[in-house]
Amino acid sequence: MEMHNHWCSASLFLIISCFVGFLSFPADAAVKKNQFDVVKNVSRLCHSKPIVTVNGTFPGPTIYAREGNRVLINVTDYAQYNLSINWHGLKQYRNGWADGPAYITRCPIKTGHSHTYDFNVTGQRGTLWWHAHILWLRATVYGAIVIMPKEGTPFPFPQPYQETNIVLGEWWNSDVETIVNLVNKLGLPPQTSDAHTINGKPGPLFPCSEKHTFAMEVDSGKTYLLRIVNAALNDELFFAIAGHNMTVVEIDAVYAKPFTTQAILIAPGQTTNVLVKADQSPSRYFMAARPFMDAPIPVDNKTVTAILQYKGIPNTVPPTLPQLPAPNDTNFALSYTSKLKSLNTPQYPAQVPLPVDRHLFYTIGLGQNPCPTCQNGTKLTASLNNITFVMPKIGLLQAHYFNISGVFRADFPGRPPVPFNYTGAPLTANLGTSLGTRLMELGNLIPRKTRLNST
Ligand SMILES: *[C@@H]1O[C@H](CO)[C@@H](O)[C@H](O)[C@H]1NC(C)=O
Ligand SMILES: *[C@@H]1O[C@H](CO)[C@@H](O)[C@H](O)[C@H]1NC(C)=O
Ligand SMILES: *[C@@H]1O[C@H](CO)[C@@H](O)[C@H](O)[C@H]1NC(C)=O
Ligand SMILES: *[C@@H]1O[C@H](CO)[C@@H](O)[C@H](O)[C@H]1NC(C)=O
Ligand SMILES: *[C@@H]1O[C@H](CO)[C@@H](O)[C@H](O)[C@H]1NC(C)=O
Ligand SMILES: *[C@@H]1O[C@H](CO)[C@@H](O)[C@H](O)[C@H]1NC(C)=O
Ligand SMILES: *[C@@H]1O[C@H](CO)[C@@H](O)[C@H](O)[C@H]1NC(C)=O
Ligand SMILES: *[C@@H]1O[C@H](CO)[C@@H](O)[C@H](O)[C@H]1NC(C)=O
Ligand SMILES: *[C@@H]1O[C@H](CO)[C@@H](O)[C@H](O)[C@H]1NC(C)=O
Ligand SMILES: *[C@@H]1O[C@H](CO)[C@@H](O)[C@H](O)[C@H]1NC(C)=O
Ligand SMILES: *[C@@H]1O[C@H](CO)[C@@H](O)[C@H](O)[C@H]1NC(C)=O
Ligand SMILES: *[C@@H]1O[C@H](CO)[C@@H](O)[C@H](O)[C@H]1NC(C)=O
Question: Which domain of life is it from (predicted)?
Answer without folding.
Answer: Eukaryota
